[in-house]
Amino acid sequence: MDILKSLGHPEEIINLLRFKMGGCRAVMPKLDYVSRACCKCPVSLSLFKRSLLITPRSTTTTGSGAGSGATGSGGSGCLMAGGRFGGGRRPLRAARAAAAPRALSSYRRVSSASVCASCCQGAMGDGMRTCYRYLNQTSRSFAAVIESLDGDLRHAVCIFYLVLRSLDTVEDDMSIPLEKKVPMLNDFHTYLYQPDWCFTESQEKDRRVLEDFPTISLEFRKLGQQYREVISDICHRMGMGMAEFLEKKVGTMKEWDLYCHYVAGLVGIGLSQLFSASQLADPEVGRDTELANSMGLFLQKTNIIRDYLEDTQQGRAFWPQEAWGQFADRLEDLAKPEKLESALSCLNLLVTDALRHVPDVLTYLVRLRNQSIFNFCAIPQVMALATLSACYNNPKVFGGVVKIRKGQAVTLMMDATSMEAVQTIITQYSQELLQKVSTTDPSRAKTLHILGVIAEKSAPLQPALQSKSVHLSPMYLSAAMLLAAVSWQYLSATVAQAQGTTTTGGGDMPGH
After folding, report:
1. Would you please indicate which residues are annotated as catalytic (active-site) residues?
2. What are residue 370's phi and psi, to 5 degrees?
3. Domain-located, residue 191
4. Domain for residue 481, yes or no?
5. 108 beta partners
6. Structural domain range at position 142
7. Comparing 108-117, 189-198, 306-315, which segment has the lowest mean pLDDT?
8. CA of residue 78 relative to chain centroid, distance
């Protein structure tokens, strides 16, 4: 049964095979940059394959407490931050086909000149080529999707990522004494305008971005003023937030929101402002910082929830004490077998808190008009919801890692390219979560309430879902295959038992 489950649904297997055989072009055909360039570029194809791992956070070991690793569980990930996602289902073929015309007409198409960095390096200066090389070296998830963005926005987001990666590297480096690290974090934004500033004492694996920071800062200064102002401001605010949490644990739920704001919400705000500055998104997208913050918080909280075991084993504490303190004396006690019921109650409480950001996610995405930006933002959000669905009430969170099937990751990438499809996916996972809510869970009422709100926001697609209910989806085919396998095993066993009983003259078969 575990083997059958691990194979996933038939259509996921087909999509994974399509990706293995055709790469980027096969799974994301709506991006011109992919179909015209990256599908033929071995470097970009390799990057895209690695992005399926969806492991956005730094894996460096940090000290105890939330402050000792402000990027420990997700870090200052961009809107593409995510995780190894698992669970979920996808009866979306009809929805995707119906949504395709709108996806091609309602969103700005990628220009034919918009190709990946590795395919057009000849058109770049040495400094920018170096920056893209650092991007590929330091990010296992973001390189391909950043390179898919349109026009000069692509370079701006690349530099934005590298600046924040440099800031993260300082924060993560436990060899830097606090009396030196705190001023560095607070002043880091000023180094963008100091041509010769670099830091050669870091012990972190990504130290190269600090050692060669003059190259990054030079390319930063070449960006348009509208981009420089955003990047500098976000870097300043994030550095101050990291400094604040260096020796401060995440205590209350409000502090959890604040911590996630510093390490992820600010990234969402910065990206949104870059989108608007590029004129590829309406000014409203950049101005509405509350929605942009929710985009980041939803992803960051998902990472923190999923990575409980890894973080606690490495001495990091990101679950808020206000939550886990209701169920255990110590955060690490939740991993004890005798604490399973309490652990699941705490887990479900945090999942419910994360779900309250989903309505904001839907409102944010509906405002996007550029296809490359929409894909850049939408794909990680639906993957995060899939992850929460897989984590909800799941003991594996406390004993291992909740992973995504690669076929499901590819399928979500293929599907989440229009608002209609995203609403359908969110509706599906909301229904899946609803079926998992226990009648005895302490957070049951809050969970049902937020799922109701999400269902209302996704209501436009409900008729489409109902109209497809008469068809046999891959989910039902998989269930039928699984049921057939179990039935065959049961019948084989009972026949063998019956034959043995006849031979020995025994009585009734056990179980009857």
Report:
1. 259, 306, 316, 376
2. -95, 130
3. yes
4. no
5. 370
6. 2-93+115-469
7. 108-117
8. 9
